[in-house]
């Protein structure tokens, strides 16, 4: 079994880090990052955001990343326990929810001390599934931390269609919630040009490592013979870009932006077949091979879901 345990760097990762850095520099209280499902938002949070922010800030970042799960929390204590776990520290002993809440406040104060400004950033992935009461509990937590002279910034990362700004999310709970956490927003973008695609594919050939600790790239480690004979994934940018466009839904009228799911799963399929083909690897890299690999990702169906024809594109405008 070949596991995917590497993080490809994308233009959107750098853009997200730049935007979040500007927000933190301006000490905002909250913002929304939104974009279609499977475009790579969680990938950036998992592999890149903390590292890129640390580089920009010149040191440790007071950052907590938490992924909200469907079903939510039935009490403030349950929510606070999940947030406490996201900080790397679980509840101490079997205690009541109020004590867990106190532990969370103490932990956030501790993290905020990484910054001379006593500032802590909570990034909530899959924020579109947050309930009204969970938002209100976050407002209460925000107020409690203000009493400890700590400012909490909540950055919500949410999945929406191309042409649908997160107005529903911004109105969830009350105007009070929106005023604290949702005055700023930024759209997370997919892969928009062949040049961006080539940059991503180059990661397989040069900037990844597999197996871990080997010092060799994913392409070299997986398709050893083909790599020795000159195979590089980035050299097939044209074939993959053409396949992504060819497999768009009929009468598609949305923007030309492609999800990382279609790219990474498709490229991985081609790589695996290339590795298994030995000296006959070139037959696995034709346009038809790339087209089949992209089709197998469900690309056409996904693109039909992330853009809904007839919905006003005015809702896609961005306000910072």
Descriptors for this entry?
single chain, 320 residues, alpha/beta, Rossmann fold, 2 domains, five-stranded parallel sheet, 5 strands, 48% helix, elongated, disordered C terminus
Can you walk me through this structure?
The chain is of the alpha/beta class. The protein folds into two domains: 11-187, Rossmann fold; 194-306, no CATH class. Helices cover 48% and strands 9% of the residues. It is built from 15 helices and five strands. The chain has helices at 11-25, 41-47, 49-57, 76-86, 97-112, 132-147, 167-171, 175-181, 194-207, 218-222, 224-228, 237-246, 260-277, 287-295, 299-306, and strands spanning 30-35, 63-67, 119-125, 151-159, 185-187. It has a five-stranded parallel beta sheet with strand order 2-3-4-1-5, sandwiched between helices. α6 (132-147) links the parallel β3 and β4. It starts with 10 loop residues before the first helix and ends in a 14-residue tail after the last helix. Mean pLDDT is 88; it is low at 1-5 and 312-320.
Structure at a glance:
The chain is of the alpha/beta class and 320 residues long.
Number of domains: 2
Average pLDDT over all residues = 88
Query: How much helical structure, as a percent, in the residues?
Result: 40-55%
User: What is the chains' assembly state?
Assistant: single chain
């Amino acid at each position: 079994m070949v596991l995917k345990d590497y993080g490809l760097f994308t233009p959107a990762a750098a853009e997200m880090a730049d935007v979040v850095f500007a927000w933190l520099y301006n000490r905002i209280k909250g913002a929304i990052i939104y974009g279609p499902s499977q475009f790579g938002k969680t990938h950036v949070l998992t592999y890149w955001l903390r590292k890129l922010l640390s580089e920009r800030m010149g040191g440790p970042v007071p950052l907590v990343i938490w992924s909200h799960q469907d079903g939510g929390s039935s009490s403030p204590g349950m929510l606070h326990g999940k947030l406490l776990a996201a900080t790397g520290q679980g509840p101490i002993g079997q205690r009541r929810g109020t004590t867990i809440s106190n532990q969370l406040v103490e932990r956030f104060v501790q993290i905020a001390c990484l910054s001379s400004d006593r500032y802590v950033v909570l990034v909530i992935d899959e924020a579109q599934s947050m309930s009204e009461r969970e938002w209100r509990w976050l407002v209460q937590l925000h107020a409690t931390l203000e009493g400890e002279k700590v400012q909490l910034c909540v950055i919500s990362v949410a999945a929406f269609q191309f042409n649908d700004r997160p107005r529903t999310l911004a109105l969830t709970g009350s105007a009070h919630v929106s005023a604290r956490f949702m005055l700023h927003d930024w759209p997370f973008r997919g892969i928009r040009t062949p040049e961006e695609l080539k940059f991503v594919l180059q990661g397989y050939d040069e900037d990844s490592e597999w197996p871990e600790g080997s010092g060799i790239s994913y392409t070299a480690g997986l398709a050893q013979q083909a790599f020795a004979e000159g195979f590089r994934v980035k050299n097939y940018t044209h074939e993959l870009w053409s396949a992504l466009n060819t497999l768009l839904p009929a009468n598609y009228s949305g923007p030309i932006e492609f999800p990382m799911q279609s790219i990474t799963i498709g490229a991985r399929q081609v790589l695996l077949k290339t590795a298994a083909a030995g000296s006959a690897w070139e037959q696995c890299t034709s346009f038809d091979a790339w087209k089949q690999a992209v089709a197998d990702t469900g690309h056409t169906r996904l693109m039909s879901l992330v853009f809904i024809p007839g919905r006003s594109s005015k809702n896609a405008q961005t306000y910072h």
